[in-house]
Amino acid sequence: MKRLLSLCLTAVAVGAAEPDYVQNFDSLYNNLTVEKRGTVVELRARAHGGEALESAVDLSDPQQLVVRYTRTLYSALFFQPRPERVLMVGLGGAGFHRLFAASYPQTLLQTAELDPKVFELCQSHLGFRPTAQTPVTIQDGRLFVKRSKEKWDWLILDAFRGGYVPPHLKTEEFYRECAARLSERGVFISNLHAGNELYYSDIKTICAVFPQVVLFSTAGTGNVIACAVNYTEPSILDAKQWAKDEEFLRPPMQGRLDFATLRRERVPHPSAAEMKQAKVLSDDFAPVEFLNAMKVNNTR
Amino acid sequence: MHRHHISSALTASASFNLHLLVSLIAFYALVVVLGILSMGFQLLASRLLNPHFGSSIIVWAWLISTFLAAFSIGSMLGGWISNVAPARRFRLQATTAALAVGALAFTAVLGRLLLNRIELAFGDSSTGLLIACIGLFFLPVTMLSTFGPQCVHYLAQRGTAPGAASGVVYGVSTLGNIAGVMLTAFALIPSFRVSTLLYGWLAVAILSLTGLIALLRAAAPASPTKP
Question: Which residues on chain B place their C-beta less than 8 Å from a C-beta of chain A?
């Protein structure tokens, strides 16, 4: 009992310990903070009312998905279990990338990131080493999608600037551009934040473009990951039709991803009453900043 | 009889003062409206550009520079217009107002179509942005800006010292700029489509420029300031 108490006290002491370092950086687009505490490095961006956690990486095990919603991004495997070409809009600290690159060494994981400082810090402080399979292009995500002629098996939208998402990455027109760049069985994946008006408009806009949309809510966080496809058949709405674990399980995922939990994270679409005020956002009408983009921060 | 003359003179004087007051209020209101139109248009312009060029600092650099260039050239052009002979000045006022309205109509009707074409035609963002900004925003803002110096001239003609006239016009106009930015950001963009707002800008430009030209003409002296 004494030993247990001592362990608990040690844990509390470690949790409350001074960080190894906290460094602030001003970039063209963000005020960024990098904080190292033990082996974990966090990348945060100043947002209204504090700092938004962009990413976190455990340097002792970089493949660990420290920020919980990055685990939920892997629910795309249920719909496209063999991704060969993946585009990610928004690099963050590349928390998602390490496990993915280790699990799918032959797959191209292309990233479009607007802020060159984010890419720089990712390499200098968060231990990310881009390779030929994980290239990063410094460009606005929408421009990258528009100008790329390639098709993608997964197209992940996870771009935030501080506490909000740029309006042009939230519109029906942009989602149509994304839909046009998906391969035949491609999946569009978007990281949304529930609990504000924007969330309902996000869902309505995604549903206006994609015929099938499945939502996963990361347990204990406000993140909702929307997975959407271009096709109506086969149905992705029936969980029994989803790919089985053995179709996509790779050794690096062992102990880092629990697909049974991910399957349970599926949530229904918001009710008609909740969606009553929702609007389809368009290039012509996207008051994203006023729909309270981010009441909920990412959570480790 | 004598009393009647005094009374008539007083009534005429009061009526003249009231007329002066009303025209001055209308004048300053129009200066504010022009300020709103110019800077509010910059926010609308950013919303038009974002889907095609993103919302990076590069977009803002081109957009702000375009507007400043338009303010600069418009002011110089307006300064020149204020000093030409009235008949020619009236023609120039009508021409600049027509160009402002025509250019706003062009942006409202063909803006999106043109931006789609420009975006596809130019791989380089800066080239595309330069062409888009010049093609869609430069002309209307330049033409609107020509009326600033003419407003200064209007006040100077009515007896205000040139320095004071310049200070008050640019001060009031800048208040209009602030109102334009805040109104557009916090009230208009959250409530209306950008395309609807562009038509609103067009309607307000037609009304305000018509009113301003009428005021400027009414105040013009019979003889030219400069031959």
Answer: 47, 50-51, 53-57, 112, 119, 123, 125, 189-195
B227 or B213: whose pLDDT is higher?
A: B213
The domains of chain A, with CATH numbers, are 69-291 (3.40.50.150)
Map out the domains of chain B as residue ranges: 27-219
Give the pTM: 0.83
List A89's β-bridge partners, or say none. Answer: A112, A157
- pLDDT at residue A10, as a whole number: 42
Mean pLDDT of B109-128: 87
Answer whether B185's CB lies under 8 Å from B43's CB. Answer: yes
Give the up-direction half-sphere exposure of residue B5: CA atoms within 13 A in the CB hemisphere: 2
The single-letter code of the amino acid at B188 is L
Asked if pLDDT for residue B64 goes beyond 80, the answer is: yes
How far is it, in rounded angstroms, from Cα A238 to Cα B60?
46
Determine the 3-state secondary structure of A58 from DSSP: strand
Mutate to test the interface with B, among A171, A172, A285, A291 (most CBs of B within 10 A): A285
B51, A28: Cβ pair inside 8 Å?
A: no
Angle, CA B104 vertex, CA B100 and CA B105 arms, to 5°: 115
CA–CA distance, B135 with A298 (Å, rounded to integer)? 42
Q: What is the dihedral of CA A31, A37, A39, A43, to 10 degrees?
A: -10
Nearest-CA residue of chain A relative to B188? A287
B220 pLDDT higher than 80 = no
C-beta separation of A185 from A69 below 8 A: no
According to the per-residue pLDDT averaged within each range, which of A36-50, A147-161, A256-270, A284-298 is highest? Answer: A256-270
**Spatial contact of A293 and A165, defined as CB atoms under 8 Å apart:** yes
Amino acid at A191: N
Contact B54 A114 (CB under 8 A): yes
* Coil, helix or strand at residue A22: strand
CA distance linking residue B196 with residue A222, whole number of Å:
35
CB atoms B55 and A283 under 8 Å: no
Instruction: Assess contact for A106 and A224: CB atoms under 8 A.
Output: no
Of residues A29, A171, A174, nearest to B57 (C-beta)? A29
**Any B CB within 8 A of A149 CB:** no
Q: What is the mean pLDDT of chain B?
A: 90
- Per the prediction, chain A carries an average pLDDT of 89
**Contact call for A143 and B54, based on CB within 8 A:** yes
Task: Mark yes or no for CB contact B50/A285 under 8 Å.
Answer: no
Q: What is the pLDDT of residue B51?
A: 86
- Tell me if B85 sits within 8 A of A174, measured CB to CB: no
Q: What is the pLDDT of residue A196?
A: 81
In CATH, B27-219 is 1.20.1250: yes
